[in-house]
Amino acid sequence: MTRATALFPPTFEALPSDIYFRYDEFDAGTHSPSHRHAWGQLNYASHGVMELEVDGQRFLSPPQYAVWVPPGREHSCYNRQAIVYRSLYVSAELSRKLPVSPCTLAISDILKAILSDFAERQVNVPQSDADRRLADVVIDQLQAAQPHDDYLPYANGGALGEVLAALQAAPGDNHTLAQWAERVHSTERTLARACRRELGMSFGEWRQRLRFLAAIEALTSGEGVQQIAFNLGYSSPSAFIAMFRRLSGTTPEQYRSTFRALGQA
């Protein structure tokens, strides 16, 4: 088994400003050891999927979503695949405007554009009036972001846990919820209720999110779009492309091209 390379965050006794922007690129198989600090932190992978553990709870940060870690919470991360990393450190005072518990936040196009612009210009601490105004917009956008407990939650065992574990092993499985219910000696209605209660979403949405995460990994490993589509259970590449565009804001090939370009920069 390959040993993960440790990543160590910048060490500050205090933040240089109320908001500090950080940008990096991490290779596959890297991790950040468990740590905590007095400020809040937004963790966002513009390409790839970051896995975080916050106070013992597991979170995923795929494109379009970020993980918010409030001040003082113990957290660590692991990157199974190479990622393009965007992070925002937020002072304890400003963090009071944001969720008090760790959560996944949907990232708006405006917020993505500002993070991308600051990364391109290597802005860590906003200095100009224009950049300070953009930093204010970032906080406004985070306040308005829709929070989720987790991007891909898990069931607490039982019949639903058995179904989800089987789907993780084979994301392309197209059995209906009724067919799964028969397999695990349950009913479709019981499983549907368990999805809403334990996952906070429908069975179909959970499976789509699982396939999206699998698609990102496959794209970064070089698999063709048509093959990925069929492996993930789609009847045609166009159906897969439509799903990917809806969840990422870009097509699979555009996503792959951007990732390759960033890796060569």
Order of helices and strands: EEEEEEEEEHEHHEHHHHHHH
Summed over residues and divided by their number, the pLDDT gives a mean of 91
**Whole-number tally of structural domains:** 2
Helix content: 40-55%
- Helix/strand/pairing category: alpha+beta
Name the CATH superfamily assignment of the largest domain.
Regulatory protein AraC
In total, the number of strands is 11
Shape: globular
Distance between the termini: 30 Å
Helical segment count? 10
Structure report:
With 265 residues, the chain is of the alpha+beta class. The protein has helices at 92-95, 109-121, 129-144, 158-169, 177-183, 188-199, 203-220, 225-231, 237-248, 252-264; strands spanning 5-6, 19-26, 30-35, 40-47, 50-54, 57-61, 65-69, 75-79, 83-90, 103-106, 147-148. It has a six-stranded antiparallel beta sheet. Strand 5 (50-54) and strand 6 (57-61) form a beta hairpin. Helix 2 (109-121) runs antiparallel to helix 3.
What is this entry, summarized?
The protein has helices at 92-95, 109-121, 129-144, 158-169, 177-183, 188-199, 203-220, 225-231, 237-248, 252-264, and strands at 5-6, 19-26, 30-35, 40-47, 50-54, 57-61, 65-69, 75-79, 83-90, 103-106, 147-148. The chain is α+β, with helices and mostly antiparallel strands and 265 residues long. Strand 5 and strand 6 (57-61) form a beta hairpin.
